[in-house]
Amino acid sequence: MRRFLLIATVVVLSTVSAYAQQQPICAPGRDLLTVPEIKSKNGKLQGVVMLSDEQRSLASAATGSPCNLQQLRFFWGYSTQDPMTPWPHTGDILPGPTLRAHIGDMVEIAFLNQVNTSNFPNTLDQGEQGKTGPCDISTATRTNNPNQTRQIYPRNDSYPNCLHGSSTANLHFHGTHVTPSTTGDNVLLFIRPALRSGNTLEPSTDFVMQQFGEVFKQCEAYGSPQQWSQLPATWTDSQKQLLQKYDSTAPYKGVNGALPADMKLWPRNEARLAKNQWPQYSVGAYPYCFKVPDYASGQVKMGQAPGTHWYHAHKHGSTALNVGNGMTGAFIIEGPYDESLRNFYKETATHHNWGLREQVLVIQQLETALNLLSPTNRGGPAPLSVNGRLTPVVSMKPNQVQLWRIVNTSSRNFVEFDSFTKHGQGGQSVSWRQIAQDGVQFSYPNYQRIGTVNGKFNLATGNRADLLVKAPAQEGDYALQVVQSVSDLPTGTATILLTVRVKADDKKIDPPMDFIVQENDFPKFPAFLADITGPIHMKRDLDFDTTPSSGRSGKGQMPLHEINGKLFDGHDVDQTMFLDSTEEWTISNRTINIAHPFHIHVNPFQIIEVFQPNTASAKDPANPCYADPTKPATWKPCTKITPPYVWWDVFAIPTARQDALPSTVCTELDKCPADIKDFTACSSGTCTVTIPGYFKERSRYVDFTGQYVLHCHILAHEDRGMMELVQVIPALPS
């Protein structure tokens, strides 16, 4: 622990310097950047994730032009166990450091928020603008910029469900099965930037690291804390003082120290502490510490799936914009899965120059202002990049197999992996086989039927995929073609995500590496990931819907994104589950052109049924699978999903279908058949039925109690209210 403190103190003295490059560089086709890693050592992942800001190169189009320097909030970091690897100062918007832990490790992350809020004059943090009512962003913008007269954002949203820029942050460890409370995957926290007086920060980095050293020592001995009083008194006292200082000095409508009483932060913490609850607000830093569950220990019922996960900022209302700034990073949790793959591909006396090289590929959709917040019409969503660069070049050797860990951290776009094409004509091509989904490996039967050679797959926002990627013997450049959309049935022209450059060197791979083809060679499927069976304790229905502006908010207003007809309010718990229960949920979608990606924290789930009403067979009246708009009994899949089932933590809800009813059925809503009335809308003598798409999932709510969220992972939808607060509570006495 002393080494943690000493190295941290030394390293922090050399922080990220300002990006001094005079001309931004956004050119596509440069080499893939390798993101620095924080790796666990001796059973501990110890490091710092820093939220800071500076100017970085940002392109507004896939061509790389125009390219400008933009002030962004971003993550960087370092390990406190090993000497710091200098952070790359290329000017690119890199993701945050890749975290690499092992099953059973302690994760000890010091999260420091050192954003300079003066660089973001239009920030709409609660304490800075006092948004308790409608989020009139145009008014707020004019307060800071008197010459700004254009309305940037429609006024039908209310706090907290409105898009705004925020320097308040936290970390969501996406895909982890850990406690959602206290120092775990707690997304209900609001961590404000450190207070600034010139170049002086409060709390200082040295003080933070000293205090967190004590916190982590206690975590190692006793696990994550349960009470705020279990943290060092010097830390909790300093947080009280800093919050009170913030409350007495924060700007409100341009006046420092004028914050109304109901906008102050410390009284909110004080009220929670009086109820023996964990406080919500912090200033400058926060200690994340939790143990990665090891099923073999016998202490948990679920265990953590080893695989490719990720983390990102999750401050409600600002998640989309902060993720768009690049506040994301990969989180690799290793275990028997990885060990088995490396063992199969290891170099031996008969397998020359083998070895399994990994590529961690973080797909980003980088922007400083969402379309809804921009005063100019940017003409569509931001382009996709990989590890901060547009269409980068990945190097491979002829006949080499690599493990690609792909994370779609974009705020909006789905990415369907279509095919590789060789630059020029003819020749072999790069190929792949998918071996894991959302950080959970396939069982061998699913590897055979889903992980087929070059099988197309669609990553919604938040999805991950592990691939075995095989280069051909022929040298050349091979372009990976993808289709972007917001649908589970993507259409459109394929674009290039990256290029694989196959080039030989003096270390020839002999014999050629190949895909795994025998079950005995494939990673053994963990017992705790067996299909969910046994009694279902509860069934629930969740209905995701985008309500058109004409239906709710009036002409000129933005549509609302709701779950079960309501927006997130941050106070009411929408779903309560008992610990150790097994539930089956039906998640439906009434939106016709958007496949809302359903995501729930902490607990992964298995998909057991999917209904997509827009398939050719479901739309063909002559087909036995026809979904008849007048017969809801036919709104179900013809083909069953057979076990073993795949585990997910994000799944795109199939899009809905709309059909006009014949006039012989009805022309007025009150005369329509009763069983379709809830799905019907009528106007000017024509009635239209919406056939929802849906899926059914099963999950076990085990190991952890506490509150967390489920939401749509198109992050602008989440920020505008398509989210629910859920909780797991202890089971009632029998």
| Assembly state (oligomeric) | single chain
**Number of structural units classed as domains:** 4
Query: Strand fraction band?
Result: 25-35%
Radius of gyration: 26 Å
Spatial strand order of the main sheet? 17-16-19-24-21-22
Overview of this protein structure:
There is one protein chain. The protein is of the alpha+beta class. The chain has four domains: 225 residues, Cupredoxins -  blue copper proteins (Immunoglobulin-like, Sandwich); 38 residues, no CATH class; 171 residues, Cupredoxins -  blue copper proteins (Immunoglobulin-like, Sandwich); 164 residues, Immunoglobulin-like (Sandwich), CATH 2.60.40. The protein contains twelve helices and 40 strands. The strands form ten sheets. A six-stranded mixed β-sheet has the order 17-16-19-24-21-22, with no helix packed on it. It has a six-stranded mixed β-sheet with strand order 28-27-30-38-32-33. Strands 1-4-15-14-6 form a five-stranded mixed β-sheet. The radius of gyration is 26 Å and the shape is globular.
